[in-house]
């Protein structure tokens, strides 16, 4: 059987929009800011991909996580929300964080380019 990379339960909770699970992990001090997957995606990336605005609010406002953290391909959470068509999450990130439509990934694609695809 091939090796399957393990994913931290905080990333799973963010992906699934499990706010209660994330609150419990924070209470147990298991929700770390530097946590990321093998591709550099953080809890904020995962919440953005899933379109989970309440989770984004929690991660930013209660856990002091940042939205301008980039994955290893240079994508911000706004890139991920745009790529997945999660407009409410994208709008929230653009209005409430330092993410912009003009942020570029390593291929030079802006959030606006990704949203238009």
From TrEMBL:
GO cellular component: cytoplasm; extracellular region; host cell presynaptic membrane; other organism cell membrane; stereocilium
GO molecular function: actin filament binding; toxin activity
Keyword Kinase: no
Pfam families documented for this protein: Ank_2
UniProt subcellular location: Cell projection, Stereocilium; Secreted; Target cell membrane
Protein name: Espin-like protein
Keywords per UniProt: ANK repeat, Exocytosis, Hearing, Membrane, Neurotoxin, Presynaptic neurotoxin, Repeat, Secreted, Target cell membrane, Target membrane, Toxin
Protein's GO biological process: actin filament bundle assembly; exocytosis; sensory perception of sound
UniProt-listed InterPro entries: Ankyrin_rpt, Ankyrin_rpt-contain_sf, Espin/Espin-like
Matches recorded under Gene3D superfamilies: Ankyrin repeat-containing domain
Record bears the keyword Transport: no
């Amino acid at each position: 059987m091939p090796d399957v990379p393990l994913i931290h339960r905080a990333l799973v909770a963010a992906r699934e929009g499990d706010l209660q699970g994330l609150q419990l992990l924070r209470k147990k001090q298991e929700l770390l800011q530097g946590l990321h997957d093998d591709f550099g995606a953080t809890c904020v990336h995962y919440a953005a991909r899933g379109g989970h605005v309440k989770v984004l609010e929690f991660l930013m406002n209660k856990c002091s996580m940042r939205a301008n953290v980039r994955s290893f391909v240079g994508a911000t959470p706004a890139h991920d929300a745009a790529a997945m068509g999660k407009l409410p999450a994208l709008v929230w990130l653009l209005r409430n964080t330092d993410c912009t439509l003009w942020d570029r990934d390593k291929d030079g694609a802006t959030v606006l380019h990704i949203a238009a695809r």
